[in-house]
Amino acid sequence: MKEIISSDYEKEVLAGQNVLVDFYSTECPPCEAVAPKLETLEKLFGKEIKFVKIFRQGNRDLADQLAVKSSPTLLFYQDGEEVSARLTGGVKRSEIVRELKHVLGKDRVSEIMKTQEPTISDVDVAILGAGPGGLTAGLYLCQARINTVLVDIALPGGNVSTTHMVSNYPGFIDPQPGYMLSHNMSEQTKRCGTTYKVAVDVTHVDLLKKEIVIDSQETIRAKRIIIATGTSPNRIGIPGELEFKGQGISYCATCDAKYFVDKEVVVIGGGNSAIEEADFISKFASKITIVHQFDQLQANKIAQEKVFENPKFSFLFSHEPRAFKKAGDKMVVEVEDLKTKEMKTLISDGIFVFIGQKPNLEMFGDKLKLDQWGYIQTDEDMRTNIDGVYAVGDVGSKKYRQITTAIADGTIAAISITREIG
Ligand SMILES: Cc1cc2nc3c(=O)[nH]c(=O)nc-3n(C[C@H](O)[C@H](O)[C@H](O)COP(=O)(O)OP(=O)(O)OC[C@H]3O[C@@H](n4cnc5c(N)ncnc54)[C@H](O)[C@@H]3O)c2cc1C
Of 18, 170, 293, 395, which sits with the fewest C-beta atoms within 10 Å of its C-beta? Predict the structure, then answer.
């Protein structure tokens, strides 16, 4: 891609053509992730759209003037006018193609996309998921000189990258910001030489053939596949939930309760995990309001007795949250009384949502053997019931889901594979 500087901007970008501008930085993993996508798209669209890049730190005045605040930021121009939404962060190829439609029109973009040649590559191991489990497996395999590719639908790091602070990961005296811990894990694996395909669309996975298709055009054939796709908390799906995730709304008491010493929190949920987690939170918080959709708790009796006896707890039965908001540094949750339809506002220091977790397994069809809760069963070497397919980390059937247990699984799977094919 052609590199330009501020003084070229008028001539190269505003002079009336179709232009895609990539503001990038050095030491920027999302910039590294988007660069190969732009290169392949330039090959496809280069005759009709000019692709240019601008080093953000070296052209700060221009970046400030254009209100470009992070790297990468992709801007799209048509005849000197910026058109369509800007893309930032872990930008997917499909998102860039979507925005190009604003520049060239839907039909022309579809026409050009049809001309792209599918690619096929062969690797020893493909790892799906670059959280702690997948990154650790990638590190061990790379150090054993096994040709490995790490594929993730997001940027590397998994759940740790969105965790505020991690204080129970051995080797650090002080609590570590989750994003730094996951950044270091990822850089360690990347520096070894593992190939990364991140912020991609995983279009298709065939575990029996051991083939993964990404971005609808790139097929990866592997001798072994490691599934390390983790879990996602069940979401309530109401306004404000995504926006305030990690900034007032938490899905993990073990991780975040300690930040609420003598503070007031709202807990959404009334099943076993919600009440057990809420009991744990009560060791820190001064007041806990449980919001539950039914007229009684669903948790086991012992857990119920504990919270009913604890004066820190109050309960809003037959209530459901409808929206999360922020007021200064306080969290606001609007709840509806399901019996009277009356709306109420609860103000607290933080909100915990425990309405269950789900393993990220949608891609894998129905051939994997799962436990009764829907998590992948493995043997002690992390092998699943499908030959050559392993599962590590939170997606696997286990009692305790933590960073340390995920990296232990990743280690075991990688060593097992190395013994088999190394
Ligand atoms: C808010 C929060 C705080 C936490 N705090 C702590 C803590 O303080 N200490 C601790 O030990 N544990 C903590 N945990 C738990 C810890 O984060 C997990 O146990 C750990 O991250 C599991 O690692 P993993 O690699 O199995 O999965 P994840 O970290 O979940 O990573 C899975 C990866 O797979 C990717 N993925 C999903 N679907 C696909 C797909 N179809 N194809 C390709 N990639 C896919 C995801 O994008 C993600 O990057 C916390 C969890 C949460 C949610």
Answer: 170
3-state secondary structure (DSSP) of residue 307? helix
Q: Which of 135, 151, 179, 229 best tests ligand 1's pocket when mutated (most atoms within 8 Å of CB)?
A: 229
Shared domain check, 190 and 333:
no
Measured from the Cα of 250, ligand 1's closest atom is 1
Does 312 lie in the same domain as 284? yes
Q: Are 72 and 84 in contact (CB under 8 A)?
A: no
> Span 39-59, mean pLDDT?
96
Decide if pLDDT at 164 tops 80.
no
Pick from 180, 403, 404 the residue to mutate for probing ligand 1's pocket: most ligand atoms within 8 Å of its CB. Answer: 403
Cα 223 to ligand 1 centre (Å): 25
Ligand 1 closest atom vs CA 165: 8
- Please tell me whether residues 12 and 102 are part of one structural domain: yes
- Specify the ligand 1 atom closest to the Cα of 129: 34
Banded pLDDT at 173 (limits 50, 70, 90): very high
Mean pLDDT of 282-303: 95
96 assigned to some structural domain = yes
Distance in Å, CA 401 to ligand 1 centroid: 9
Give the pairing of strands 50-55 and 18-24: parallel
Return the exposure string of 340-352: e unless at least 16 CB atoms fall within 10 Å of the residue's CB, then b: eeeeeebebbbbb
What is the C-alpha to C-alpha distance for residues 4 and 17, in angstroms, rounded to an integer? 15
pLDDT for res 166: 84
User: Which structural domain range is residue 304 located in?
Assistant: 249-353
Q: For residue 84, what pLDDT is reported?
A: 87
**Do 348 and 326 form a contact (C-beta atoms < 8 A)?**
no
Average confidence (pLDDT) over 63-74: 97
